[in-house]
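hey all, quick one before standup. I had two proteins in the batch that finished overnight and I want to keep them in one place so we stop losing track of which output belongs to which input. First protein below, input sequence then structure tokens straight from the run.
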Amino acid sequence: MAQQAAVIGDPVSTEPVVAREKLEEIFEDISSHILYDHELHGCLNCGICTATCPSAQYYDYSPREIVQLLWTENLEGIYDAMQEKIWACAQCYTCAARCPFENSPGGLVMIMREVAIKHGMESAKEVLRPFSRVLLKVISTGNQLAPNMITKEAFPDWGPNVSKVDAPLNILRKAIPVPTMHTMDTAWEVNLKTSIELYTIWEATGVLDQLETVDENLFDVVQDVMDEKREEYEEWLEEQEEDDEDED
């Protein structure tokens, strides 16, 4: 009879157990990252990083815990932290500036986030889902945000300041002297070549592979948009060549 793989899980939780082989694979992806050895050097457990961490003041998050989990290779704790805690880090790197061992908990969190995306963890999908429209805006126009995306519903944490969103933005923007800023659909238009270059960088660096893991539908839409842009750019290049030949 084949021996069952050891599993780790909370006996009172409804979450499915995780095979130890999977936990080891996740830690291997973290510890083999090219930056890992630059970000982790040991830990005195002094707590300076957590004491100066802005996120630790408001969330169930501790930079010291992240370092301790990785330094002791606590596979179950690492996996658990990747479900929620690593997404609370604001990436301010105050921790790295204060650590007497020159650890960078913020850098370690970035590595753990990359691995969470690679493994298609639900926590990564949930965190990145609100940014899908922003990503599509970047690839289609070259901008992260457009005025028509700023709504009260999108920014409920703004508090009293959210009332300013009710201002007639389409009228106010006409006061901006730059003509390209008058539209509500985009802040400005990025030229076709630049947009394609951005997409090519995403291809070469694996960003699109990660996107396919966390949001396959958005990945398909982005590909369709860029296929159209590349065709449009090729047609423009052909037209330029024909014009040059006519001039000769």
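OK second protein, same deal, sequence then tokens:
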Amino acid sequence: MIDDSLLTPALQGVHLSRSFGEGETKTTVLYDVSIELFSGQITLLMGPSGSGKSTLLAILSGLLHPDSGTVMALGHDLWAMSDLERERFRLRHCGFIFQGYNLFNALTARQQLEMVLRWGEGASAGEARRRAEEMLDLLGLAKKAHLRPTELSGGEKQRVAIGRALIKEPNFCFADEPTSALDWKAGQQVIELLRSAAHDRGATVLVVAHDARIIEHVDRVVHMEDGRLWQQEEHEAREPVLHTLKQAR
């Protein structure tokens, strides 16, 4: 029997367009873009700076309203929802990894992760702490759990951000240049963790990146240029060579 999840997209953008500015300053960033993403796959979206990659990711994840087109996520029309409904959908189903980390300066690394579980899932304090410590250990940050962002390196902050995105085991994970602050060894480990979220837990993972070394670790590559998708490639991701992020210590 064929798994329906392999036939029905978990996330689908249809005829998406987006512009910024008005009049003579108006710039069109996306031109009638359609894309399908599936559960259990990690997809890499590549293209030069200014090609529209981050804009497309923001629209597909419910962070930026398109000028036209629809986004269907788990059978729901994302942009037909109210702002509150869409916020609740993101909180329940989505994990985000941003280039700028977006960590809270007043919180320790462990508290950054605990907050997601306490607020998003209603987990008890003990359960949230246990799961946060397990994730930080996996990320090679067990000894840094008590430190705040100002006391962490760029790579460590990025790993905390990745842990925060994955700890609630989201249906969707959106990663914008997740390896940009990391050396390749640590970056490779991060991609393996994202791939595990897809292959082992059935998440739909979309990664925006410039680094061509990521290609061999993903299932699918979509190329974008000048606001349009122009090539899509299916890949057979190679077997992981790094099984734990503890090696990044």
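Flagging for whoever picks this up: The domain at 9-20+27-102+170-248 is CATH 3.40.50.300 (Rossmann fold). Residues 239-249 have pLDDT under 50 and may be disordered.
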